[in-house]
Every structure is written in structure tokens, then in C-alpha cells.
């Protein structure tokens, strides 16, 4: 008899500041973006979903919580600097040991993303309301893009443009175009140690992006893709006996 597969343990982390400061954001995400994303993932089979926010003790990312997370989703914007370095290092080590990490939108400047990329993660940006974003699929058939057509449109988003200063990714899954003619690599993957990382651009707080069915589909697919496959074997440089001798 085979055991049923154990569920993927997901933690959705949100800075959770815009929602309390801006009534427009609160009207789109009454319980916070993290709860909207978590509610969708809770409908998926084979996922056990928790949330964590900046103002919880240890940002809700205690050692136990991090160790019991298979895939961490990260949304931050206003308060990247308030994330304690000790928590960043805890998450980084866990990624290297195999935890998946999905970084959303303005999380491109999160300490944890910059630490794992090793670059500035800077990009171009335009402060204009409600730009139109078209996300074009550049890796059809990739597991993260299952159920996605050759493109999808977000009628209201914030423009991010190239150059986006990240290391050359393993895969570029999506390229966005915006109303001003700008383009952006809006879905990219990397590996760090045993961990898989996915950056996904959409998610400006003023627009209902995390209610969009394609965006939610990509996030759920990314959770399955980023989940560690069998627990990683510890890697080390210990002494090793070889099966041969000098003659
Ligand atoms: Zn934004």
C-alpha cells in the first residue's frame, strides 16, 4: 500500500501595511493580500496553508515555522528594512536546504531576494495609475504555466521595466509589455542550493491583481513546482574512505 503524499506546507508572508493605511487597498483586500492568496491555495488539493506578517513576533517566521515550511510566498514593499537580518538569514539557510521561495511584485527589493540574488535587483518604474499589462508566455508547457494560454491581460497594473538587475535566470517564463512600450521579464526562476526560486511580477496593491484567475493559477502552479522533492540529503565535505589502495 502506498502512503498518500504529504501536503505541501505553504506559508504566505505579507508585510501587511498598505491594507491598514490605505482604504482603497483595504477595500480590495479586506483581510490582507496574504489572506486572499492563502484562501485560493486552501482550495487546492495537497496544500496546507498558513500565513505570517511583519508585525507578528519574529515576523511570524520563527525557526519552527520556517523549518516546517516547504514553500514560502513573499510580498513586501514599504518596510523591507524592518525585516530583521536574523530572520532573513534563517529563511536564506532554509532555501539553500530546499525550501521553495516565491517572490511577488515589490518583493524584488526584499532583503531575502537581494541576499539570494546577490545583485541590486533594481528596475525601472513609472508612477502612473492603472497601466495595462500583457503577460506573454515564453516557456509554453512549463509546470508553472499549466492552464495558461499564450498570454493574459491585467487591465490595471503598475509598470515595471527593464533593465531588471538580477542574475541571468534559469528560465524566463513570462515577458510583460506595458502601455508605454516597456517590457519586463515578469516570471523567472533560479536555483540556490537545493531551493527553487520564482519571481512573479504582478501584484501592485492598488489593483485587484490577486483576485485574477490567471495570476492565482500561476501562483498555485509555482507552489507545486517549488516544493522540495524528497527531503534534501545533507551535503558536506567530510572525510571519505575510497575503495582502492596504492599499490
Ligand atoms: Zn507596486
Strand order of the largest sheet: 2-1-3-4-9-8-7-5-6
Beta fraction of the residues?
25-35%
| Cα-atom radius of gyration | 19 Å
Low-confidence parts:
none
Whole-Å distance between the termini?
A: 50 Å
**Which CATH class of the domain at 8-118 and 187-226 applies here?**
Alpha Beta
Oligomeric organization of the protein chains: single chain
Descriptive labels:
globular, 247 residues, 9 strands, alpha/beta, 9-stranded mixed sheet, 7 helices
Describe the structure concisely.
23% of the residues lie in helices and 30% in strands. With 247 residues, it is α/β, with parallel strands linked by helices.
Describe this structure in words.
With 247 residues, this protein is an alpha/beta fold. It has a domain at 8-118 and 187-226: Rossmann fold, CATH 3.40.50. Helix content is 23%, strand content 30%. The protein is built from seven helices and nine strands; from the N terminus they run E-H-H-H-E-H-E-H-E-H-E-E-E-E-E-H. The chain has helices at residues 18-21, 23-28, 33-42, 63-67, 85-96, 111-117, 213-226; strands spanning 8-14, 47-53, 71-75, 100-104, 124-137, 151-161, 171-178, 183-192, 195-200. It has a nine-stranded mixed β-sheet with strand order 2-1-3-4-9-8-7-5-6. Strand 7 and strand 8 form a beta hairpin. Helix 5 packs across helix 6 (111-117). It is globular and about 75 Å long. The N and C termini lie far apart (50 Å). The mean pLDDT is 94. It binds zinc ion. Zinc ion binds at residues 105-106, 158, 204.
